[in-house]
C-alpha cells in the first residue's frame, strides 16, 4: 500500500456477504430444529421462517450491515421465559461453532464466532437464573 492511499476497513458483513450469512443461519437452524437438547424450543416458534430471517438480519446488522427496515430484536425478553441454562447456551454455541467453521474459511468464521460468544455471554448473564 502506498503512503498516500488510505487504509480501508472492510466490515465483516461485506467480507462474508449476505448470501453466506443467510446460508449459515439456514444450516444452523436445520441443526437446531432437530437437536435433541434444543429442538423443542424451536418447534414452539410459530413462524420459524420469519424467525430465521430475523436472525439473519440480526447477524447482518451486528456485522456492520444496513437494512432499510431493521427488525426489532429483544434477545433478553425472548430468551428469559424459556428457562435456559448455561449448559443450553454452551451447547448452542458449540453447534454454532461447528456450523460456522464448516461453512466459512477461518478468517471469516473466527470473527463471527467471537461475536456469537459475546452474545451468548450477555444472554447467560441476563437470562440464566443462578
| Number of E-type strands | 0
**Which percent range describes the beta-strand content?**
under 5%
Termini separation comes to 52 Å
* Portion of residues within helices: 55-70%
The radius of gyration over CA amounts to 16 Å
Low-confidence stretches: none
How confident is the prediction overall: mean pLDDT?
A: 93
**Which CATH architecture is right?**
Orthogonal Bundle
Shape: globular
CATH superfamily: Globins
Specify the CATH class. Answer: Mainly Alpha
Q: Outline the biggest β-sheet.
A: none
Record the SSE blueprint.
Elements: H1 12-16, H2 18-34, H3 39-43, H4 48-62, H5 75-79, H6 86-103, H7 106-127
Helix pairs in contact: 2-4, 2-6, 6-7
Commentary on this structure:
It is a single chain. Helices cover 67% and strands 0% of the residues. Helix 2 (18-34) packs across helix 4 (48-62) and helix 2 crosses helix 6 (86-103). The protein has one domain: Globin-like, CATH 1.10.490.10. It has helices spanning 12-16, 18-34, 39-43, 48-62, 75-79, 86-103, 106-127. The chain is an all-alpha fold. It is globular.
Question: Quick gist of this model?
Answer:
With 130 residues, the protein is mainly alpha-helical. It is built from seven helices and no strands.
Structural descriptors:
130 residues; 7 helices; Globin-like; mainly alpha
Amino acid at each position: 500500500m502506498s503512503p498516500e492511499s488510505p487504509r480501508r476497513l472492510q466490515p465483516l458483513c461485506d467480507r462474508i456477504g449476505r448470501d453466506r450469512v443467510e446460508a449459515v443461519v439456514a444450516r444452523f437452524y436445520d441443526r437446531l430444529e432437530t437437536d435433541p437438547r434444543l429442538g423443542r424450543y424451536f418447534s414452539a416458534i410459530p413462524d420459524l421462517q420469519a424467525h430465521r430471517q430475523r436472525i439473519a438480519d440480526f447477524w447482518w446488522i451486528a456485522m456492520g450491515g444496513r437494512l432499510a427496515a431493521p427488525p426489532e430484536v429483544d434477545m433478553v425478553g425472548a430468551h428469559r421465559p424459556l428457562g435456559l441454562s448455561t449448559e443450553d447456551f454452551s451447547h448452542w454455541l458449540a453447534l454454532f461453532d461447528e456450523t460456522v467453521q464448516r461453512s466459512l474459511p477461518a478468517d471469516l468464521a473466527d470473527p463471527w464466532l467471537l461475536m456469537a460468544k459475546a452474545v451468548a455471554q450477555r444472554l447467560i448473564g441476563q437470562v440464566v437464573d443462578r
